[in-house]
Amino acid sequence: MQVPSNVEYERATSVEHALSLLSRPETRVLAGGHSLIPMMKLRLAQPEVLVDINGLAELAFIVLDGGRLRIGALARHADLLDSAVAGECFPIFPDAERVVADPIVRLWGTVGGSLCQADPSEDLSAAFAAARATAVIKTPDGERTVPVREFHLGPYETVVGRGELLAEIRVPVRPGTGSAYEKVSRRVGDWSIAAAGAVLSARDGVIQEAGIGLTAVGAEHFVAAEAEDFLRGRAADAESFKTAGAIAAEHCHPAADQRGPEDFKRHLVAELTTRALRRAAARANSDVKQ
């Protein structure tokens, strides 16, 4: 039988209350719980206190605020998938959300919970990294902001410290930007074998800025930085995208496992990166988001 160890349960009534509870040793936040609870059953995680934040409606929002898209940490996957404003600004998010687990998980799992779980195969981490999002972390002294590209310290580890809480994610919105997400998995809803997200800005056929996020293939901070550097100032064409895909494949570090050998995963990175860039470019040049 798989059962968790003894744990105290506290239900937060406000962000301030949650922060005070999280200042205690060995606490974990309970949001969706789809990753944490199974880990507790296997005793891979043994918190002494669970702080349930599901009642904090002030953290469940998706809004366009000036030049940025703001997503509350307690927004559910289904909320982001169905959000018209998020899909209009960044099609990469509904692309990614459609392949996150299954409808039951998407209805209860949260955006902030996915980022804080820091699973190396997590989809939204790559999507937010590609979009150069910023994490807003509430602290006892106010708040601090951290680029999502610096948010993850390693597998299952983030910069969120004791007594702190991820509150929202902010994504800068720029005109003329397209985005897309591509994933290959063994079964529908499964973890990625490999996945790639792209956010592309171009003017007069020349790439001004490119963001490429990779997941499940050992990319540092979920980013294909060398491929991004290559694309800046290049023509937004098939040749540039194919070369960028090859560069992304060369610089990631996939591990051979039950999902496939290393060379297979590198092949997927090259192909998925190329596809994501191609779709992102098409969307950047279209009045209708795909």
Helix content: 25-40%
Strand order of the largest sheet: 4-5-10-6-7
Radius of gyration: 19 Å
Largest sheet: 5 strands, antiparallel
Structure, explained:
The protein has 290 residues and is α+β, with helices and mostly antiparallel strands. 33% of the residues lie in helices and 27% in strands. It contains 11 helices and 13 strands. A 5-stranded antiparallel beta sheet has the order 4-5-10-6-7. It has a 3-stranded parallel beta sheet with strand order 1-3-2, with helices on one face. Strand 4 and strand 5 form a beta hairpin. The protein is globular. The model has no long low-confidence stretch (mean pLDDT 94).
Provide the descriptors you would attach to this structure in a database record.
290 residues, alpha+beta, 5-stranded antiparallel beta sheet, 3-stranded parallel beta sheet, 13 strands
List the helices and strands and how they pair.
Blueprint: E1 8-11, H1 15-22, E2 27-30, H2 36-41, E3 49-52, E4 62-65, E5 68-72, H3 77-82, H4 84-89, H5 92-97, H6 103-108, H7 111-117, H8 123-130, E6 134-139, E7 142-147, E8 152-154, E9 157-158, E10 165-172, E11 177-185, E12 192-203, E13 206-215, H9 225-231, H10 238-251, H11 262-284
Parallel strand pairs: 1-3, 2-3
Antiparallel strand pairs: 4-5, 5-10, 6-7, 6-10, 8-9, 11-12, 12-13
Helix pairs in contact: 9-10, 10-11
